[in-house]
Structure formats: structure tokens, C-alpha cells
Amino acid sequence: MEYRLCNGGCCMNKRGCLCRQANKLNSYNYFCDIAESELATDYIEVQFKNTRKGYYINSNKLPLEKGDMVTVEASPGHDVGTVTMTGKLVVFQMKKARIRPDLDVRRVYRKSRQTDIEKYEEAKAKEHDTMIRSRKIAENLGLQMKIGDVEYQGDGNKAIFYYIADERVDFRQLIKDLAEAFRVKIEMRQIGARQEAARIGGIGPCGRELCCSGWISGFNSVSTGAARVQDISLNPQKLAGQCAKLKCCINYEVDTYMESLKQFPSREIRLETLDNTYYHIKTDVFKNVMTYSTERNIISNIVNISSERAFEVINMNKKGQKPKSLLPDDEHRSQGRTYSDILDGNNVSRFDSLKKKGKNRNGNHNNRAPRPK
User: Fold this and answer.
1) Which of 240, 255, 285, 354 is exposed most, by the fewest CB atoms within 10 A?
2) Domain range for residue 8?
3) Residue that finishes a domain, picked among 304, 319, 334
4) How far, in Å, CA of 217 to CA of 53, rounded?
5) Tens-digit pLDDT profile for the chain (373 aa)?
6) CA distances from 154 to 44, 123, 125, 157, 363 (A)
């Protein structure tokens, strides 16, 4: 990621923000303009490739700022990352991540030298080829897994293999083969389909960047019940995202719909009239319209009424009364029944209007003037 430090062009100083970032791991340090907060703690936040972050202690009292490349302690060797936060807010971030400072925090060695950065770039250049070779090794072993990404440590002595598997995989032999092939320490990390889509990225059907790549850091479960509440068509091709799971955006407006639906009667209540019994089909929250049908499983003789009219009919049914029609009396008089031929689209007379604008047998347009002889 390219860091562009703010040099005073916004209300915060260069320690607090980066100009117009789009990465979901970026943090806004709202303590950056308080001088005391920078001296409150020696802990810093460091970001590595993709979604990996770590917290380290600046025991050497180095003057570090957001965007600095640092060399930190790793096991084994050292790693290279970018400082993303300093000051008091780091302590709150560590509590949120449930990291214990006495056990889980390692040291910052130094600001990265040119040799550290060169070794770091050299290790990163090998990641793609390593991923392709590791996939072939896993395929030869017959393992039901997919290696989605490889991340080398800054000194090149360790590699993290991110893989996806639906079932438990015994990759003990795989680790031996990978260690023999690449001569590095191997670490295997399993990720889900949503995490893989977030790492790859892409454009959603809305035309914007995938939410999992742009800003979502935690994935909540999505159920088809959320789609039913919003009356979304249960079409798997439309409900599934690029990860082949239900789209995360289905959860965005569920709470608003649940709150709005409290103003509507229950969908399980049947409406009784003198001529028929009506069952609920769908509800349009925006138009305040409820659709009822005379059949429970088949859309037949549908009637659209407001929620007020539905409550009125329900109250009449509770008193043992039945209205003549589901529609109000004034609307029932003004709305006459109209009939249409469902086979009208197959009527051969529809070609008569097209013939006047079409071509004749010779290929000439009928509306053209005859050529002069």
C-alpha cells in the first residue's frame, strides 16, 4: 500500500491521518493533536501485507511516526512493516484485540535500513511463484484444499500459506514437502471463502468495490431470513456474492425493515370477506401497500391495500364481521374489473403493424418512395 502523509492540508497533523485512504485497516487517531498522548505509551501498531497487523513496544525510544518502515522482532529472525498508529490510542486497540502486553508484545529493533528494505522486496517478489508451486505440490498429494495466498516474512526465513478447505486436512506431509522445496519455516493458516474474496478484491453488482475488500473487518453470518424480511427474491444467483456465500449487504437494512414492519399487521393473519379468504403475499414498506391473494401458495386474484385498511378488516373479523370486499367501498366502486387475454402476445394480427414499418420481399422498405425510371 502507498502511504501519502498529510503535511498540514487537513485539520489533523501528519501523525493523525493519511490523505484519503481507502484501505479498511486504516485507523483514525483522534488523539494525534494532543501532545501528551504521544508520550503516554511506547507501544505502536504495525501493518504488514494484506490484513495482518501487530503491536510492538518501542523500547529504544525511537522517534517513530505514522508511515515509517520499521524492522521488528519475529520468530525466527525479523520482519518489516509500516507504522500505522502511535500514542495512547494503541493501548485501546490492544485491549480491543485482547492482546496482553506482558506476553504477546515483541520489540521494535530499528527503523528499516536500505538493506532491510531490499531483502523485504526480494522476499515479496517470490510470493507468486511460491504460491503456484505450492498448489502443484498440494495437488500431487491429493489434498482437498486450495492455497489462496503466500506471505513471506521480511527477512525471507518464514512463509505463511493461506489456504481454504471445506473439511479437515492432514497437511503434515505437505509441510515437509514445502519446507524441502523452499527452505523456509512453514506456517499454515486457514481462511474462509469471505476472507479469500476480501483478499482478492473485485467490483460488486452495485458497481462499487466489494465491501469485504473496502471496509468490512468482521464477517457476521447472513441468513435467508434476512432476505425474506425485505421481500427479496430468493434467487441464489442474485443473493450470492463473489465468495459464493450470501451477500453481506443483505444484513445492512434488516433492522430498519424490522422496525418499519412493526407498523404493519402480521403476515400470518388471514383476511376474511364475504366472497373469499385472502392470504398475505408481500409487503411494500416504502409505498405502505400490502398484497393479498386468494390462494396461499399460488398468486391468484391479488388485491393491494394499505396497512390501515388491513387493520380495519382484521378488527372487523375479530368482531365476527366480514366486509363485502377487501377494498374500501369508495375504491371498490371506482375500480371496475378489467380482463385481458393472456394469449394476446401470440395473436398473429400483431404483425400487421410491423409490416408497415418492415421490408417487403425484395428487401426494400415499404415507406420509401419509388425510384425514378
Assistant:
1) 354
2) 1-112
3) 334
4) 12
5) 444 444 444 444 444 554 444 456 666 777 777 777 777 788 999 988 767 888 999 988 898 888 899 999 998 889 999 998 888 888 888 888 888 877 778 999 999 999 999 999 999 999 999 999 999 999 999 999 999 889 999 999 999 999 999 888 888 899 999 999 999 999 999 988 888 888 888 888 888 888 888 788 778 888 888 998 888 888 888 899 888 889 999 999 899 999 998 889 998 999 999 988 999 988 889 899 999 999 888 888 889 999 999 999 999 999 999 998 888 865 654 454 444 454 455 555 555 554 455 545 555 554 454 455 4
6) 18, 7, 11, 8, 72
Please confirm whether the linkage preceding 101 is cis (ω < 30° from 0).
Answer: no
Burial bucket for residue 289 (CB in 10 Å: 0-12, 13-18, 19+): middle
User: Which residues partner with 162 through β-bridges?
Assistant: 149, 189
C-alpha cell at 32: 494525534
Q: Are strands 158-164 and 146-152 parallel, antiparallel or unpaired?
A: antiparallel
Q: What is the CATH number of the domain that holds 140?
A: 3.30.300.20
Instruction: Note every long-range contact of 251-257, with CB atoms under 8 Å and residues 24 or more positions apart, other chains counting.
Output: 251/220, 251/222, 251/226, 254/226, 254/229, 254/230, 257/229, 257/230, 257/285
Q: How far apart are CA 33 and CA 39, in angstroms?
A: 12
What residues form DSSP beta bridges with 150? 161
* Contact between residue 82 and residue 69 where contact means Cβ atoms under 8 Å apart: yes
Helix (H, G, I), strand (E, B) or coil at 175: helix
Q: Which three cell numbers stand for residue 236?
A: 441464489
